[in-house]
Queue: 2 jobs
Job 1
Amino acid sequence: MDDRLTLQLRNSLDDIPAANDTATAWLDHHEVAPGAAYLANLAIEELATNCIKYGYSDDGVHLITVEMERLDKELVITVIDDGNPFDPLAQTAPDTTLPVEDRPIGGLGLHLLRQMSDDFAYARIDGNNRVTLRKRLT
Amino acid sequence: MDIIESSHPQATVLALNGRLDGHASPIVTERIDSVVARGSGRLIFDLSGLEYVSSAGLRVFLTAAKKCQTGGGAAIFAGLPPSIHEVFELSGFLAVLQVQPTVAEAIGQP
């Protein structure tokens, strides 16, 4: 297997488990550390789910592209979609200190991705949202 | 996701093995609801076999804790592997949910 993986899923929630399975097989083969592998799976599920639920103004079929690259010292995960412009870094972090009964349900996915990655970048390029996460492999 | 249910005198234990993602979340929610509907008091989640939880799974846990609390019971989360423990910590769940090192300690808790 190559040091780079590209996979695509349609804008259907049913496509997410297969994308995670493909990613996990590639991550296992490349002996990627558990923390980085966890982040990769979380990035695919959280970013694709957000995009599928809220990213499109039409009912058409769209493709979401996931790219992973295993470098010497880090794993780079990129998720690209052609949905409406959405900057995950512009979202406010949830208040994680509230007691159970006051906790709003939601907002946690992006918070986890930001906390678990070493770098988290967003760009709007050629009509696409492009989120790039980096995780050190130590 | 594989769910194993076991009954104890004052508690029900649900062992969740595998991946708790958006796909598995509705199935687990349904199972939790049936346990809570029986009013069996304490609900203990054995997470020692849990490999992955996403925000969808975390919502399932938070909702379960609220349902148990509303019914006068309690939800206790036990046996968290390191990766799951980290996710609980980053989410602030360690502070708002009842977490025990092992199922035995969760069962023995007064």
Job 2
Amino acid sequence: MKKYSIFVDMGKCVAPKNCDLKCIKTCPLKVFAYYPIDTSREDSPVMITATFPFSCNGCNLCVAACEPKAISVSPPK
Amino acid sequence: MCQYCVEHGQGTKWYLNPKNINLKKAWEDANIRSVMESLALGGPKALVETIASVNALVEELPYSKDALEALNKMSEGANGGQVVPLEDTIQILKTPQKFDMKIGLTYCACRKHWGGQNKMVCMHFEPFCDLLKKSQGTLSKYDRYITPEEAIELCKDCYKEGLVQWVQWCSMPNVIGICNCELPYCIVFRTRLISGVRNAAIKSHYIAQIDQNKCDGCGGSPQCLLACNFGAIRFSRLEQYSVVDPTVCFGCGVCRERCPNKAISLIDRESVAVAKDLW
């Protein structure tokens, strides 16, 4: 069983302030996770990572939910 | 009894042996302390990135049998966990006070980092809870100590909601805490179910059993089936009753808790031939 390729472009990502972590909340399989880069700040920028690519079913809800279009998903080769 | 009970239980289940719940004492061992430190002090970044990197490295599932064996072996010196039913949870939570250890309540990392949800249902014992709080920074603002009575009440409430209790070890057999888990958030259940790593979430010592005489199928909307995180319940449309698949069942007991007719009980895993070696 091969996995989807999921890429999050952190250059385009505006989480958490301007998007309410839509990718994290929309993904039905909870592929994505986030963490604050600086835990000492409430308003720290966050890192978004696709942690469970094997769970991804290619529904692309994350791609649609992300306004700045920071996420791309491609099927296994 | 699972292999860890045989090795570490001294006549009882490994996680019920009070010697294994003395985390303050385990802390005195430099090796165990360093495992606790690397688990706690890495914080959310280490947790998320470790899972991401392990899954990035693996090109294809399933893992080979050798790889799984190696991962299970490795987890024994590091971290892993086992599903436990409520009665075992309660017994575990009564033990820290014997050693003058506090219980620290914190947010569930799985629901927070994978779901953006804050749910204060994860408990660890002293001194681990204090270590964890350091690395959480502003995320620890709701962290607090709770009494064993509060901890037990919380677990009872979670159980009614359908959350599965999971006891975590740090360097087997040291019990480090209990979490109230659920899919799709719980990373240990997912690691077990998707990657097949048994020691991420070993099944409990029990299997659910449904009394057909008491089961009326909830009028076609079986509450047990809705509650089961693992898909272990099948519904017989023709007979209008629910059936547990013992090869899938993790023996958590949430179905038992949700059944309006009290038709479900937990029996020893060892009494079910097809399930007794399926950990």
